Amino acid sequence: MSVNTNEGSKNLWKDLPLELLSSVMAFLEIKDNVRASVVCKSWYEAAVSVRVTEQPPWLIYFAETKNTYEFYDPSNCKKYTMELPKSLVGFIVRYSKDGWLLMSQEDSSDFVLFNPFTMDVVALPFLHLFTYYQLVGFSCAPTSSECVVFTIKDYDPGHVTIRTWSPGQTMWTSMQVESQFLDVDHNNVVFSNGVFYCLNQRNHVAVFDPSLRTWNVLDVPPPRCPDDKSWNEGKFMVGYKGDILVIRTYENKDPLVFKLDLTRGIWEEKDTLGSLTIFVSRKSCESRTYVKDGMLRNSVYFPELCYNEKQSVVYSFDEGRYHLREHDLDWGKQLSSDNIWIEPPKNAFELV
Fold first, then answer.
1. What is the pLDDT of residue 95?
2. Taken in order 286, 289, 292, 298, is the CA torsion positive or negative?
3. What is the spatial distance between Cα 282 and Cα 332, in angstroms, rounded to a whole number?
4. CA 324 to CA 300: how far, in whole Å?
5. CA 20 to 30 Å from 221, out of 95, 119, 123, 270?
6. Bridge partners, 71 (sequence order)
7. pLDDT digits over 8-48, tens only?
8. Can you tell me the distance from the alpha carbon of 63 to that of 131, in angstroms, rounded to the nearest whole number?
9. Predicted structure pTM score
């Protein structure tokens, strides 16, 4: 008796439980999700069940002369103004993650996590935040026991001091390692795969594992870029489903995208983001797969507005161009912008 193995394989996939099919579909990009949905009825049900539109991040801006800050929602081009708590007037944003801001005064030991939607403030233990050679970030919202606040500082040549804090701790945990890593400017950090990835101006990569408390400078050559040092100014790093991506920009040239390939030990240049949409700013970067209708996929959203302050500056890889008038592309404003992308809560409209 002969068995048609191809037909058997088809039936095997078709007869998989909906929960298992949905788990598989959740890993697909939107274009692959749509293709899979036309295979059969069960695949359609599984594909549609996970095809949930993701809420895009909002821009947040702190006015220097006012005790207020402003949100901008790129999906509907609307702005919302909020009053800053008096205790945080004069504070500077250092990093953003999961709807929270890591803030401090310029030369002060006052170091806090602030939720600009709920107005919650978490004060951290004493820590002097130096202006130069300092890199800070955190893993997730401080409402989670998994939260780790991470700082790294070059105090003397050949050594870096790493400090971490987690909810419930009354002091920072400190360690010093032999390493010459940070530069004066253009250092980046992103948390992904349970570790902090750090990128310096020379485009070398180091990894800090907060659970093992290990620091490792990776043997990965810098990504290929033009020799012009100005390309360092428009450098953004973002994590997406375990992948680490770097976006490089300069003036009105097309952005360069690189993906870290740890297996081969290289930065792989990419000519597309697929269905991914990336939102970049100096203090935070966000990534989305299923953005709302009217927003561009396979695109990079920058932190400045154009068109009379009503639309974000966007680069579309599908079209190979920026979406704005040429005179609106002021890269001096783009790269020095203090606008920050932040993840809004699901009930954001009730809070603003």
1. 94
2. positive
3. 13
4. 13
5. 95
6. 60, 80
7. 455 566 677 877 887 777 667 666 777 888 888 888 888 87
8. 21
9. 0.82
